[in-house]
């Protein structure tokens, strides 16, 4: 018989805070409490919604991110992210070529511009015909 372990919100808060390189004192100041209260919160299995919202805001995440936090997911993301430590420039493997996207946008704008010019020509021609009839 297997039991499903409930999410431990306090532990999730603690891990996210640590990953953000934030001390309990800093989090306490950000939400207007003291370090001891943060320690108690991080030891709690559940946290009331109002506190959770304040903590999420201070940590720069959503309350849902705290509730659904998974270390496995974090390590999976870190493990699958290319990071070239040989330079100060970080490459996170862009899945598209930004220059291609730029060229596509320019092409679309050119086609739109050409279409607008054609419409203006047609309008001018129509107005000329109306003037000639008078």
TrEMBL record:
<dbReference type="InterPro" id="IPR010982">
    <property type="entry name" value="Lambda_DNA-bd_dom_sf"/>
</dbReference>
<keyword id="KW-0175">Coiled coil</keyword>
<feature type="domain" description="HTH cro/C1-type">
    <location>
        <begin position="13"/>
        <end position="66"/>
    </location>
</feature>
<feature type="coiled-coil region">
    <location>
        <begin position="99"/>
        <end position="129"/>
    </location>
</feature>
<dbReference type="Pfam" id="PF13443">
    <property type="entry name" value="HTH_26"/>
</dbReference>
<protein>
    <submittedName>
        <fullName>Helix-turn-helix domain-containing protein</fullName>
    </submittedName>
</protein>
<dbReference type="InterPro" id="IPR001387">
    <property type="entry name" value="Cro/C1-type_HTH"/>
</dbReference>
């Amino acid at each position: 018989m297997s039991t499903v372990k409930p999410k431990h919100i306090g532990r999730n808060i603690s891990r996210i805070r640590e990953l953000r390189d934030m001390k309990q004192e800093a989090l306490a100041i950000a939400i207007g409490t003291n370090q001891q209260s943060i320690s108690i919160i991080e030891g709690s299995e559940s946290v009331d919604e109002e506190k959770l919202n304040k903590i999420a805001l201070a940590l720069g995440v959503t309350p849902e991110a705290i509730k659904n936090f998974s270390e496995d997911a974090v390590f999976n993301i870190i493990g699958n992210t290319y990071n070239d430590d040989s330079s100060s420039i970080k490459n996170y493997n862009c899945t598209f070529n930004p220059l291609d996207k730029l060229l596509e946008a320019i092409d679309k704008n050119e086609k739109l511009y050409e279409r607008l010019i054609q419409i203006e020509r047609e309008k001018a021609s129509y107005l000329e015909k109306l003037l000639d009839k008078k």
